[in-house]
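Translate structure to sequence.
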């Protein structure tokens, strides 16, 4: 068997930055709290909690300490609430997510009704909406069907400003924008899709087209891992998502000559390498036969 790895696997720079900030805070400060998960990877969050990171739901009853802002960001009101409670704030928001927050506010200041293309339940989207300051009703849509339903309910105004969840596939975003252009008089778009994420997606597509089976190593809670798996299935129906090497069903790979591996943005390198190593241990590559010398 040949294992074909995507060129970039493991943590993206935003996740790596967030994890490093958390480890530094835990090493230097007595009490460190966080609302939700720093990133969407159970192994990483479990390690941080073992180091002392305490997950909380609210700030009531806390008397000092430090609160981490997760990589997906938080609404401004929650950050202000933490400071009002006397907590220091270490902001681990991904810089690309921060740009999306600022882009949404820019569109709002231009007088646009902000439309965020993404998963309404995702913490990144909640953080983006939480940085808007006006009273205008803003919307989250995730598909052309969502747009049409909101239009039927007369939720759109005539001047729209669009931003995207940073890890969304551009193809989905383009379809939504095209539909919005049929509805509104004016549509302003600020492209907030993370370019390194897009480069990873394109390379993973290359792997999918060359492999018999493709593995996406990433948490089942990770939106970008789920999105990547969905994208790759369009190019290779034999695309599977697993969280770690223990979840490998080796019987699925019998007879496969090439297995491709890609990963979510919050998957540690070691976890991806463990998947590769288990596959190669179970299906070692056949040694190449020496070339036959020419006959005289």
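Result:
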């Amino acid at each position: 068997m040949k294992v074909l790895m995507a060129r970039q696997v493991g943590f993206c720079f935003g996740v790596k930055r967030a994890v490093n900030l958390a480890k530094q805070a835990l090493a230097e400060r007595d009490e460190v709290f966080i609302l939700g998960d720093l990133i969407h990877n159970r192994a990483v969050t479990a390690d941080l909690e073992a180091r002392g990171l305490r997950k909380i739901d609210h700030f009531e009853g806390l008397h000092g300490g430090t609160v981490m802002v997760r990589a997906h960001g938080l609404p401004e009101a929650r950050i202000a609430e933490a400071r009002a409670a006397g907590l220091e704030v270490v902001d681990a928001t991904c810089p690309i997510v921060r740009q999306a927050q600022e882009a949404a506010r820019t569109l709002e200041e231009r007088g646009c009704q902000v439309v965020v293309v993404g998963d309404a339940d995702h913490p990144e989207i909640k953080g983006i909406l939480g940085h808007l300051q006006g009273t205008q009703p803003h919307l989250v849509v995730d598909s052309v069907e969502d747009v049409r339903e909101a239009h039927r309910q007369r939720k759109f105004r005539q001047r729209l400003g669009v931003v995207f969840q940073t890890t969304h596939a551009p193809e989905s975003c383009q379809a939504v924008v095209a539909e919005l252009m049929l509805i509104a008089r004016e549509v302003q778009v600020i492209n907030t899709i993370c370019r390194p994420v897009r480069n990873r997606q394109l390379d993973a597509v290359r792997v999918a087209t060359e492999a018999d089976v493709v593995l996406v190593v990433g948490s089942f809670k990770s939106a970008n891992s789920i999105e990547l798996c969905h994208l790759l299935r369009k190019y290779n129906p034999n695309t599977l998502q697993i969280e770690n090497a223990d979840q490998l069903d080796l019987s699925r790979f019998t007879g496969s000559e090439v297995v491709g591996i890609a990963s979510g943005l919050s998957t540690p390198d070691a976890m991806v390498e463990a998947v590769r190593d288990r596959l190669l241990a179970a299906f070692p590559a056949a040694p190449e036969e020496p070339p036959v010398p020419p006959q005289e």
